[in-house]
Design brief:
This protein is mainly beta. Helix content is 8%, strand content 51%. Strands 1-2-3-4-5-6-7-8-9-10-11-12-13-14-15-16 form a 16-stranded antiparallel beta barrel. Strand 14 and strand 15 form a beta hairpin. The radius of gyration is 22 Å and the shape is globular. It starts with a helix and ends with a strand.
Length: 383
């Protein structure tokens, strides 16, 4: 009964845009009728990210792992990402995308390397269907490629919610679209996911994760958008949930300066942690293990346009995140100040320099839950 109710709710969300908008004017004239668009059309994409890492805390390595004994690697060069992608439009309405990260071969590539592998069919602006392996919409970061975010990498909450099946690359299906609610533009996404990560042979159980995202455009001038996320599902014999809210804005201060701000909050069941514990060491209810956190990321952009240099950006993300705030809480606070030099347009070339500073309520020796200071220089090129 509960499963049927979830499916019915998802179905109502899918039909919502059609009830809130009048049908398209069938008599609307078609422009450029003589122009012939040939298919398929191909768009190649690529990203290269390399970095230098310098650990500045005693006995903590460049990956944030504390070592009570033995030698510690405190400086290293690293290839973070080497992505190659292809987007193909088979027709006006159908597209297929593939994205691989070749840098994943530096460690065990099982369940890695292949990132995007999906097909999308767009009926109209109100309704489109995506199926395969993709990043479901469940927050700000899920809708932005990592190469154009305003920090070195995604937030801690993004990766933790990814481990729990809500974010990052997942296998499933999603319906998306946009419509107007009065004068307020609204976009939506409804997703049904296996919830056990990318490149899996099958779902780990018969349970699925159901999630919804709504984004309200509150101000077109300042690009103020409010996002609301909610999800529920079942993992083995346990009911799980996730929720979140976020807001973004972008203010043009003058011809040279712009200021944008991102604020995001998420909370949900940490069933990944729950099932990683021995049965005798955990409670009977997975919702006793809940994660929650928020981050604030202001970014100041100065347009330079001097020879190859396009802009200078200054950002500092502050994040507070707890993987289990109800039981054995250990809040992690992360400060990420960064300066970025942009070359070309849309981050075609980018050099970033700054720090990742972690502070925990409790330091746990020989784990990554230990205070550390990491210096980073990152270089990227994107196609």
């Amino acid at each position: 009964m509960r499963k049927f109710l979830r499916i019915r709710i998802a179905f109502i969300f899918l039909l919502l845009p059609f009830f809130t908008n009048a049908q398209t004017d069938v008599n609307q004239a078609t422009t450029n009728s003589d122009a012939v668009v040939k298919y398929p059309q191909f768009q190649f994409k690529g990203l290269f990210q390399a970095r230098f890492l310098g650990a500045l805390s005693d006995n903590v390595d460049v990956l944030g792992l504390h070592h009570s004994t033995g030698e510690v690697t405190q400086s290293s060069f690293d290839i973070k990402r080497m992505r190659v992608g292809l987007n193909t439009k088979l027709s006006e309405n159908t597209e297929v995308a593939i994205l691989v990260n070749l840098a994943d071969f530096k460690s065990d590539p099982k369940t890695k390397v292949l990132e995007n592998a999906y097909a999308k069919y767009t009926f109209n602006k109100y309704f489109a269907i995506t199926g395969g392996q993709f990043r479901p919409a469940f927050g700000i970061e899920e809708l932005v490629p990592v190469d154009i975010i305003k920090s070195f990498d995604f937030s801690n909450q993004y990766y933790e919610f990814g481990k729990n099946g809500w974010t990052s690359f997942q296998i499933g299906a999603s319906a998306t679209g946009s419509f107007d609610l009065g004068k307020v533009p609204v976009s939506y996404a409804v997703s049904v996911l296996n919830g056990n990560g990318k490149n899996q042979e099958k779902d780990k159980d018969n349970g699925k994760l159901y999630s919804t995202r709504l984004v309200f455009g509150l101000s077109k001038l300042h690009k103020i958008n409010l996002g609301l996320n909610g999800g529920s599902g079942k993992v083995f014999d346990q009911d799980v949930f996730a929720l979140g809210a976020d807001i973004t804005s972008d203010f043009v201060l003058n011809d040279a300066f712009t200021f944008d701000l991102q604020i995001e909050y998420k909370q949900g069941t940490n069933h990944n942690l729950y099932f990683s514990l021995p049965a005798e060491a955990r409670t009977k209810n997975a919702n006793d293990y809940q994660m929650r956190g928020y981050y604030i990321m202001p970014n100041l952009r100065y347009r330079i346009n001097y020879k190859k240099l396009s802009s200078l950006e200054l950002s500092c993300r502050y994040e507070s995140f707890d993987t289990s705030f109800k039981l054995d809480s250990n809040v992690r606070q992360t400060y990420t100040p960064m300066i970025s030099l942009e070359f070309g347009k849309a981050y075609t070339g980018r050099i970033e320099m700054g720090f990742e500073i972690d502070r925990f309520d409790k330091n746990i020796p020989d784990t990554t839950m230990y205070n550390d200071n990491l210096f980073i220089i990152q270089f990227q090129c994107r196609l």
